[in-house]
Amino acid sequence: MTIYRILIVEDDLDMQEMMVSFLQKSGFMVSAVKNAVELSDQLKSQRIDLVLLDVMLGDDNGIKLCKNIRENNNIPIIIVSALSADQDRLLGFEVGADDYIAKPFNPQILLAKIKAVLKRGTKIASLAYRRNTNVYHFNDWIYNGKKDIIISPTGFQISLSKKETTILKVFLANSHVALTREEIANSIDDTRTQDSLLNNAESRAIDVLVGRLRSKIEKDSKNPSLIKTERGVGYIFSTEVIIKNE
Fold it and tell me: Of the candidates 128, 146, 176, which is a domain's last residue?
């Protein structure tokens, strides 16, 4: 089952602690930060499935942060704010927030909003990499999303199957992030129920596809340096990826 990762951006430490505790008990992986710098570091270092973003953050402005996040990715955002006037809500939606909840709030209402936003957002997120036409550079390899071709360090075009290409896109969009087999399967097949577990045959099918991709892009597929096995989790694309809009 996929465990969603939620990032709380809140400078009130008591509120932060309450939200972290409640959401962890509700089955989520939760981390919390209190300012824009920490937010940026978290977004760069791990996959985040949803951001709970406070508006009033001392020297930082949550509305501006929401706009900045939305300019770079499709992470679902729920604004959490003591400002509850209609104009405040509208401003949040105008800069890309997916939902809005006013303080003080019923934790169960927050949970319902999170589940609703994730349900809407997971399919959108799983499709995002398919529409991406950027050019990815990694370990002297080049993948051109617009032309849908991959070029080896020696300059030769490598032939990948449709499923191998799909998995490569998933890894390129989530470098240095450990992905479960279920998360990989969800990105490949939009018809899967997002929280369903893979059976043994389905898990093996993902392993076979990853193995085929390794055989084409790794120097030594038996000792991979790009796509590494993360024991107890799944796989991780462990190299830097530079994305260019060429």
Answer: 128
User: What residues contact residue 112 under an 8 Å CB cut-off, 6+ apart?
Assistant: none
Q: What whole-number distance in Å separates Cα of residue 12 and Cα of residue 50?
A: 19
Domain hosting 100: range is: 5-128
Q: Are residues 114 and 196 in the same domain?
A: no
Signed CA dihedral, 50, 52, 58, 60: sign only:
positive
How does pLDDT run across 78-113, given as a tens digit for each residue? 999 887 667 777 888 888 888 999 888 999 999 999
